[in-house]
Design brief:
Chain B: It comes from Abeliophyllum distichum. Chain B: InterPro entries: Nop53/GLTSCR2 (IPR011687). The structure holds two protein chains of two kinds. Chain A folds into six domains: 58 residues, Multidrug-efflux Transporter Regulator, Chain: A, Domain 2 (Orthogonal Bundle); 33 residues; 126 residues, no CATH class; 132 residues, BRCT domain (Rossmann fold, 3-Layer(aba) Sandwich), CATH 3.40.50; 93 residues, no CATH class; 40 residues. Helix content of chain A is 60%, strand content 7%. Chain A contains 26 helices and nine strands. In chain A, the strands form three sheets. Chain A has a four-stranded parallel sheet. In chain A, helix 3 packs parallel to helix 11, helix 9 crosses helix 11 and helix 22 packs across helix 24. The longest helix of chain A has 39 residues. About 17% of the residues of chain A have low confidence. By secondary structure, chain B is mainly α. Chain B contains 15 helices and no strands. The chains are: A alpha/beta, B mainly alpha. At the A-B interface, helix 7, helix 9, helix 10, strand 5 and helix 11 of A face helix 8, helix 9, helix 10, helix 13 and helix 14 of B.
Chain lengths: 612, 428
């Protein structure tokens, strides 16, 4: 309760005054528990854990200020009104006054969440930063069945579908997709929009079941807020690329469940219309009509025109290097999806990396018999009828290529083979210490691609499969790596020398600390073995120093000095930071132990295989 | 006299009424002629004057006189009073009326209505038109209630919003039924919410949880994992499962709902109690015996001699001195071993520090793994979604994917402390 309205017996400060239990809060706000829950979710107020739980451990606590914040919310009154209204409807129903029920249901009081979205996310960046959960939820509900029992409405699911497709279309159009990961749980995507990294999870194209131990009221309340939020975000994003927001979609394609393609066509048509519009100024309705007409006139089979349009847009944009790379990744490739592959996901991923894609079914831009198709994505044991002009690969190939930004050789992903492992791009192998075999192979390929050693992807992919050719690439890659290492070491050596000089000159601690910090940073960057090398180099350098500056007093024990400097820096930083540092060290040690364990396991497995 | 010179005809509805006096009747007629009547204009009603009916008149006079007698109540004793107290006003009035009637054509009060009125059968179009016109005329209060097609009804605020939305949708969107349904869902999203961001007061936002909203699964949970990472993920899943198993096995057993054995009768209960009492008695006896012994013991005190006293004092002093010497010696020893002590202290400090550090790290990791305790029930994490070794096929088509992603999202909400774990979700 507020301070000025506290009863004489009540506490004035401490946990007893700061926190109230949920039932107290419900009583204070004079609403039912369900309304309170809803309001809390919409306003973004969540329970806290006080240090001292005054009423006991089995209660849920809220901060008093949060509850006061809720009390001044105008929506509280609206929710109360709705409840009163529902009572009216119910009463009319029990009296079998159906006319009244119908009429009352027509004019139920409603509320809008626009203001709440603005309140919780004052800037657009804030909204983007918090979009992970929102996107996951919307994508999930887009795949759910409508269940009357749990009050999941058909309309809501359609809206989720629409919102998710709009978002995907934007991402795909602007080539913002960075990582994908197919896990058992679902498909993870990571994008980078306006400097914010957003990760979300979509379900597999399977029938989703609704487990009973989930509170769907809570989920639907979250969804309600997220739908509004995503609507506004989509609007803003579409505005940023000069598109009208509620996109007009070809209803024929929508019926065929090819919303994404329909959206991309909308974009193209819109781009064309904007060109037209620049010539003659017309009213908005007219232009819309024109747009719709354009969409219909857009040739379905003539992809060259489409591609040109895409390129036009692309040239205009001024994006960062990564986006450019992504845009041109699948540039000269044409994909065809078979019936059995996950269409929605691939329709999103391939255009996001600049590829052209079609699928088996109605409304597709080009048929299977198209001669210019370079890759056909299939996922079946055998392919009976084959075109010689194209590669038949499994869908995993697309995801792996996209993750590592290198066109992988297709022979391992051909039909009927067990493809190499699908590695998670979200794992930092360097930090983890353990690098899987295939990751190493890919790394070599990447290095080779950077040096343009890789033969042209269309012609020489069979060559790539040859072990000898690959070996050559590997050799070269190793050379590159070695050169890199050398360069790094040289830098380290130089730094160490500088440090020594500084020490000898007897400068103050602060400089020394700075230098040692730099050294630390360098050490973190370099690999573990590189570090060891650096140490060796360091001792060499030390010898050099002794050799060159013989007249000066040689330092007694360099290692000791380095340690002292480390300690000194540790002493000088604040206690909190020091502890953090120490905690980090502990974590690193644990990681190292883990890696060791993995290596041992690997060794054992190898030995077992050898002995077999 | 304020009477109108031309007598207005009397309306038909008054004919049935029995008038007390002609005068009153005339007043009524005057009143009604001014009032609103279905038959609108009096000039159109034609009245017919009649000859006087003598018989009627006589009856009338008789009645008048009777009434006169009733009215005079004062004393008439004596000639004087008789003359003084009888007023002749009534009679005078009557005669006046009578003469007036005679002059104007007679009283109409007792005339039958047929003789007074007749239906005008001559066709007068203008009158008819007028009547119809008056029928067509709608009262103002009625007209107000009727709907005007040119004036929009004043809607409530909620309806207004809906209307506006509908209009914008109709203009911008030519999609069909789905969108119409969507309108029921609040949130219009056709405006730029973050247009003027400068006016926003940025409030301090507290970071709720260190756990990210979408946690990416470990690489072992890939649909086609590398062998080592798959083994790793499997190991975690197996460890979880085994832990659950061991907890069930080794934990305290729940209190059984039924106890084996026979039901004891009320009567037998008494016997049981009796046995117990017997035992108690025996115990009491034993205790009593024990108590009795020390009392019997002879109480003997020894006298302390002077010599003994002196010896004791000396001994005490000696012990004291020895203790002092020992203390000094120990102190000097400790001083000698000061470095050792210092080392020990340092070691202890270090240990303490390490313990503290461990605690901090453990707390951080705990916060990363699960939310703070928010309610009655503890958060139970969902099991890791990992393929079994025999399910690993490498084909996306044959993947047995997770189909309960709703639960996963719900667990994520619980894990971040946004939803309080409930009995239903924790499965207890």
């Amino acid at each position: 309760m507020p301070k000025h309205y506290r009863l004489p017996g009540k506490k004035k400060e401490g946990n007893a005054a700061k926190y109230i239990t949920r039932s107290q809060a419900v009583k204070y706000l004079q609403v039912s528990l369900s309304v309170f829950r809803k309001l809390c979710i919409l306003k973004g107020i969540f329970p806290r854990e006080p240090k001292k739980k005054v009423k006991g451990n089995h209660h849920t606590y809220y901060h008093v200020k949060d509850i006061l914040f809720l009390k001044h919310e105008p929506m509280l009154e609206t929710l109360r009104d709705i409840r009163a209204y529902e009572k009216k409807v119910k009463k009319a129903g029990t009296k079998k006054n159906w006319d009244l029920v119908e009429r009352l249901n027509k004019q139920k009081p409603t509320y809008s969440l626009d203001r709440l979205v603005k309140e919780r996310y004052p800037t657009f960046i804030d909204a983007l930063r918090d979009l992970d959960d929102c996107l996951s939820m919307v994508h999930l509900f887009a795949a759910l069945p409508a269940v009357e029992r749990e009050r999941i409405q058909v309309g809501q699911i359609h809206k989720c579908r629409r919102l998710s497709h709009e978002w995907q279309a934007y991402i795909s159009r602007t080539h913002k997709l960075r990582k994908t990961f197919l896990s058992v749980k679902g498909i993870y995507y990571q994008v980078e929009v306006q400097g914010q990294t957003i990760t979300w999870l979509t379900p597999h194209a399977l029938q989703q079941v609704l487990p009973t131990d989930v509170d769907y009221n809570i989920m639907l309340t979250f969804l309600e807020f997220y739908e509004t939020l995503l609507g506004f975000v989509n609007f803003k994003l579409y505005q940023s690329i000069n598109m009208k927001y509620p996109p007009i979609i070809d209803s024929r394609l929508e019926d065929l469940a090819a919303d994404l393609y329909a959206l991309s066509r909308y974009f193209d048509a819109n781009a064309r219309a904007s060109v037209v519009e620049s010539i003659d100024v017309s009213s908005s309705e007219e232009s819309e009509l024109k747009l719709a007409r354009l969409q219909h006139h857009l040739p379905t089979n003539e992809l060259g025109a489409l591609m040109n349009l895409v390129e036009d847009v692309g040239e205009k944009d001024e994006d960062d290097a990564e986006t450019k790379e992504c845009r041109n990744f699948f540039k000269d490739m044409k994909f065809f999806l078979s019936r059995e592959v996950p269409r929605e996901s691939l329709l999103f991923v391939i255009p996001a990396f600049g590829g052209v894609v079609s699928w088996e079914g109605e409304g597709a831009p080009f048929p299977e018999s198209d001669q210019s198709i370079t890759h056909q994505i299939v996922d079946r044991p055998t392919q009976s009828r084959k075109f010689l002009s194209r590669e038949y690969v499994q869908p995993q190939w697309i995801y792996d290529c996209v993750n590592f930004r290198v066109i992988l050789p297709t022979d391992e992903y051909l039909v009927g083979r067990v493809p190499p492992p699908h590695l998670s791009p979200f794992v930092d192998n360097e930090a983890e210490g353990h690098v899987p075999e295939y990751a190493e192979a890919i790394k070599r390929l990447q290095a080779a691609a950077r040096k343009e050693v890789l033969p042209l992807p269309g012609a020489g992919e069979e060559d790539l499969g040859d072990p000898q050719n690959l070996l050559g690439i590997i050799d070269r890659a190793e050379e590159i790596e070695a050169a890199e290492k050398k360069r790094k070491m040289a830098i380290l050596q130089k730094q160490y020398l500088d440090e020594q000089k500084l020490k000898l000159e007897g400068c103050n601690y602060y400089d020394r600390q700075n230098v040692s910090k730099q050294k630390d940073a360098e050490g973190l960057d370099a690999d573990a073995d590189a570090d060891a090398d650096a140490d060796v180099e360091g001792t060499d350098a030390d010898a050099d120093v002794e050799g060159t500056d013989a007249d000066e007093v040689p330092p007694p024990d360099l290692r000791q000095i380095a340690e002292d400097a480390d300690n000194m820096s540790k002493v000088l930083i604040s206690r909190k930071k020091r502890k953090l540092l120490e905690a980090m060290e502990i974590g690193n040690e644990r990681k190292r132990a883990h890696v060791k364990l993995l290596k041992e396991r690997k060794k054992k497995i190898d030995e077992a295989e050898k002995s077999r | 006299m304020g009477r109108p010179a031309v007598r207005p005809p009397r309306p038909a509805r008054f004919t049935g009424r029995h008038e007390v006096s002609g005068r009153d009747g005339w007043a009524d007629a005057v009143l009604t002629s001014g009032g609103d009547s279905p038959v609108s204009s009096p000039s159109k009603l034609l009245s017919k004057s009649e000859e006087k009916n003598c018989k009627q008149k006589r009856i009338h006079i008789e009645r008048e006189i009777r009434e006169m007698g009733k009215k005079a109540k004062s004393s008439r004793k004596g000639k004087k009073s008789w003359r003084a107290n009888i007023s002749t006003e009534d009679i005078e009035e009557y005669f006046e009326n009578n003469t007036k009637d005679a002059l104007s054509g007679g009283s109409l009060s007792n005339a039958p209505s047929e003789s007074l009125f007749y239906v005008d059968k001559s066709r007068d179009l203008s009158v008819k038109r007028k009547i119809e016109k008056s029928k067509e005329k709608v009262l103002r209060c009625d007209s107000l209630l009727q709907r005007n097609p040119f004036v929009q009804p004043v809607p409530s605020s909620v309806q207004k919003k809906k209307q506006a939305k509908k209009n914008t949708k109709a203009v911008t969107n030519d999609k069909n039924d789905d969108d119409q349904k969507d309108e029921s869902v609040p949130g219009s999203s056709t405006i730029d919410l973050w247009d003027g961001e400068d006016a926003v007061k940025i409030t301090k936002k507290l970071k709720l949880s260190v756990i990210p909203a979408v946690e990416v699964e470990p690489p072992g949970c890939s649909f086609n994992p590398a062998h080592e990472s798959h083994q790793d993920a499997l190991a975690v899943a197996v460890a979880d499962e085994m832990q659950k198993l061991y907890r069930d096995e080794l934990g305290p057993k729940p209190v059984p709902l039924t106890v084996p054995g026979e039901v004891i009768d009320e009567e037998e209960k008494y016997f049981l109690d009796a046995d117990g009492e017997d035992n108690d008695d025996q115990n009491e006896n034993l205790i009593e015996n024990g108590d009795a012994d020390p009392e019997k013991r002879p109480h003997k005190t020894k006298l302390v001699t002077r010599v003994e006293m002196n010896r004791r004092i000396r001994r005490k002093e000696q012990l004291k001195a020895e203790a002092k010497a020992k203390k000094v010696e120990e102190l000097s020893k400790e001083i000698d071993s000061l470095p050792d002590i210092l080392q020990e202290i340092a070691k202890e400090d270090e240990e303490k520090h390490k313990r503290h550090l461990r605690r901090i790290v453990a707390k951080k990791e705990r916060l990363k793994a699960c939310p703070p305790r928010l309610g009655k029930h503890k958060f139970v994490p969902a099991p890791l979604q990992v393929l079994l070794s025999e399910e690993k096929t490498g084909s996306l088509r044959q993947l047995k994917g997770c189909c309960t992603l709703v639960k996963d999202r719900f667990k994520s909400l619980e894990k971040r402390g946004l939803v309080v774990p409930s009995k239903k979700s924790t499965g207890k």
